[in-house]
């Protein structure tokens, strides 16, 4: 088994925790997690790739072992989260790398790609959406908050922070829920239950509208830069639909799209298959 190292970087006084494995001189894959998880979502994937790749998985600010600063000290927007991770990339010395984008990791990683297109060697999108047709009706309560940011609409989103909702996100669309380890969702629920964790998450729900507004710009980046892209998609995802994966082919010549019979957290059930697809894609 490869050795995984656990580090923390100081980004202007903000601690960003990250896990790292593989030789630093090997091709780098930056792993960007989503809601409501952290770098531990890659715990099964990293050992499967560390013999050939340098893997770095940071916890986004406010998630996992990274600092959870108060809202008075940190603006919980996707622009600010992406800026923090962009600075993190510089601090740990990454120059050119592929990105693995999942859920929230997609708008974070794609903002970085817009800013530094020359650094992006390839993109692996695992249920990381960049198209309107990829958004399911599951977004309707969040859309309501975008359109009317009332306290009532904000409070309605607290249901997404409940422990049973996290478990549902992990198990929905999975043919056999007993194959989903409780480790991931239990850790996620621990982090969500921390004092002060709920309001930042609600802020990010509200700010997600800025990601949708950037979709045309992300798509222009795809057309102009033609980054090699592999989509590995849990086809039963209740939030990001298969048409969002297929849409990459419209803008990127040679985009590869693979569907797996699982849900949102595809790595929980198909880490080996996804690792094999990534290895084949990146080596090619």
Describe this structure in words.
By secondary structure, the protein is α/β, with parallel strands linked by helices. The chain has a single domain, classed as Rossmann fold (3-Layer(aba) Sandwich). 42% of the residues lie in helices and 17% in strands. It has eleven helices and eight strands. It has helices spanning 45-49, 78-92, 105-115, 140-147, 151-156, 163-171, 182-192, 198-225, 242-246, 248-251, 267-283; strands at residues 4-11, 14-21, 28-32, 54-58, 97-101, 120-125, 229-234, 256-260. It has an eight-stranded mixed sheet with strand order 1-2-4-3-5-6-7-8, with helices on both faces. Helix 4 crosses helix 8. The radius of gyration is 17 Å and the shape is globular.
């Amino acid at each position: 088994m490869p050795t995984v190292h656990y580090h923390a970087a100081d980004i202007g006084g903000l601690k960003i925790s990250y896990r790292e494995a593989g030789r630093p001189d090997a091709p780098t894959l930056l792993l960007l997690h989503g809601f409501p998880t952290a770098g531990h979502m890659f715990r099964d994937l990293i050992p499967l790739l560390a013999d050939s790749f340098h893997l770095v998985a940071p916890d986004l600010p406010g998630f996992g072992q990274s600092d959870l600063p108060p809202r008075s000290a940190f603006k919980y927007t996707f622009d600010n989260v992406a800026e923090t991770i962009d600075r993190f990339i510089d601090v740990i010395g990454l120059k050119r790398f592929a990105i693995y984008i999942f859920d929230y990791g997609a708008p974070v990683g794609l903002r970085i790609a817009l800013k530094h297109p020359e650094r992006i060697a390839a993109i692996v999108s695992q249920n990381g959406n960049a198209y309107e047709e990829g958004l399911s009706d599951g977004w309707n309560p969040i859309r309501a908050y975008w359109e009317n940011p009332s306290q009532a609409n904000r409070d309605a989103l607290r249901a997404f922070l409940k422990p049973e909702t996290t478990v549902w996100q992990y198990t929905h669309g999975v043919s056999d829920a007993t194959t989903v380890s409780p480790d991931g969702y239990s850790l996620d629920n621990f982090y969500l239950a921390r004092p002060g964790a709920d309001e930042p998450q609600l802020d990010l729900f509200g700010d997600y509208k800025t990601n949708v507004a950037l979709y045309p710009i992300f798509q222009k980046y795809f057309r102009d830069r033609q980054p090699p892209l592999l989509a590995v998609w849990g086809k039963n995802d209740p939030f990001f639909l298969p048409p969002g994966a297929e849409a990459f082919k419209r803008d990127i010549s040679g985009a590869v799209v693979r569907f797996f019979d699982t849900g949102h957290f595809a790595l929980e059930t198909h880490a080996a298959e996804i690792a094999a697809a990534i290895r084949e894609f990146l080596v090619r």
